[in-house]
Design brief:
Length: 57
């Protein structure tokens, strides 16, 4: 049971690591600096939404 659970958790991580996902992602971030600003804005908007709009629904 525990082995199946751990396999279920770690198998997708192994799939990402086999495809050099982290290296490709860091190269993409180095080429496109604006993505960091966009992600920060998106996260801020989500936080504001959940803080002010969602409790009133």
């Amino acid at each position: 049971m525990i082995k199946k659970l751990l396999t279920f958790i770690f198998e997708p991580l192994r799939a990402f690591s086999n495809r050099n996902f982290a290296e490709k992602l860091s190269l993409f971030y180095q080429k496109n600096k604006w993505i960091s600003v966009f992600l920060a804005l998106l996260i801020t908007l989500v936080i504001v939404f959940f803080t002010y709009v969602f409790p009133n629904l």
